[in-house]
Amino acid sequence: MDASSQFQDTLPVSSDALLAQLEAWGLSYVLHDHVPLRTVEDAKSVEAGMEVPGEAAFRIKNLYLRDKKKRNYLVTLEQDREIDLKALGAQLGVGNLSFGSADRLLENLGVRPGAVTPLAMINGAEKGVRFFMDDAVKDADVIYMHPLVNDRTVAMEISALWAFLEKIDVTPEFLEMGRD
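User: That's the sequence. What structure does it adopt?
Assistant: Structure tokens below.
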């Protein structure tokens, strides 16, 4: 199975259910449908169609990581940020990190590879996943992210993302990555 909305009913929380929950909580977003995106390069190919002139957008890449003690982490970074997993593990104070398997990703965040997103913390919160976010998000007005599937992107005001995380009782830990 791929990570598109075609298979969303096989996820713990479907994309449609997530979007309905956002609406029920009064959290606004703009939904963009597109071809399935698996990489930052794929995302860049459709971003021009989503751009809003003058908008300070935070475009992301997401890493599902595990440490040797089998603890799980979701790390959201600015999409062009270079990352060294060894240095990141030291910065987080958790030692060596590696990418989690597709099975563990589905078990802990409720998504498939290619659809990893901060919104997956709706599942990750109860699984004890720690959420780290690039502090560059603080300079943005809007964040673009997948709503649990990779053929949709939501543009959401940063304040709405904070409200979402508060609703699911998740406090992001910020990574000082140095701003450009």
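The beta strands are 30-33, 57-67, 72-78, 97-99, 130-134, 142-145, 152-157, 173-175.
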